[in-house]
Amino acid sequence: MGTAGRPLIGTSWKMNLTPSQARAYVGTFRGLVADLDDRDLFLLPALPAIPTVRDALRGTRIAWGAQDVHPEDSGAYTGDVSAPMLADLGCRYIEVGHPERRRDHGETLELVAAKVAAVVRWGMVPIISVGEAERNPETLALTQVRDELARALEAVDATTTELVVAYEPRWAIGAGRAAAEPERVGAMQAGLRAWLTDSGLPHGRVRVIYGGSVDESVAASLLAQPGVDGLFVGRAGLDPFTFAAIARTPLGVSGRPTR
Ligand code: PGA
Predict the structure, then answer these.
(1) Does residue 25 have its Cβ closer than 6 Å to ligand 1?
(2) Quick one: which atom of ligand 1 is closest to the CA of 236?
(3) What is the pTM of this model?
(4) Is 175 in contact with 133 (CB distance < 8 Å)?
(5) Contact of 43 with 16, CB cutoff 8 Å
(6) Are 33 and 39 in contact (CB under 8 A)?
(7) What average pLDDT values come out for the chain (259 residues) when binned by 10 residues?
């Protein structure tokens, strides 16, 4: 597990699950993972379900958070939600820059950087989504993703205590796609970590997790890669039993999964 420590495994439900459905989900899920104490878990519901999920998770170690945030703390921004609002709801992780936000809302890397800064300012942990658009050769892809990450981190300095980089190649996300091969993911993520170390930013805890068509069949081989500090799950996280199975992926004695 390198310097990053405990694996981090979470899901974004995207625009799925009403508050009532979310309550039922957590009611089932929390019992299925109650004994897990060697990894960190999180759920990112849609905004209306966050208070419900927070209440339903009470007494567990599972964290919750949001899928997006506005860079300003308050103001005339109809329909938007700010970092202090999410902090007030006890959110720990805030996803920033997912390709669906970039595509559907025209988010630029400059905006992503401002959102990352807002999350850090309010004491929460950004999950910064980066990934190449096309299935390019690894060296080219690594250059592209490093550039993207550098721009997303522009407003972050060495004092940042914790952040999460979600390596999510766009060509591996969504229905009809397959996860990137574990060896490629391992090499890409090791390359990202090496760059982060060289750049000196930040000095706190950084975990590099993988997202893109993660399911039960690939979870163990992805987590077994030395560069992979965790998993970020989309579709397979919508069913509490399936997500619990992914969350329960066995880890070896050194914190690495057993195969
Ligand atoms: P998916 O989504 O697991 O449904 O491919 C992953 C993501 O968007 O992070």
Answers:
(1) no
(2) 3
(3) 0.95
(4) no
(5) no
(6) no
(7) 75 98 98 97 98 98 98 98 98 97 96 97 97 96 97 90 96 96 96 92 89 97 95 98 97 53
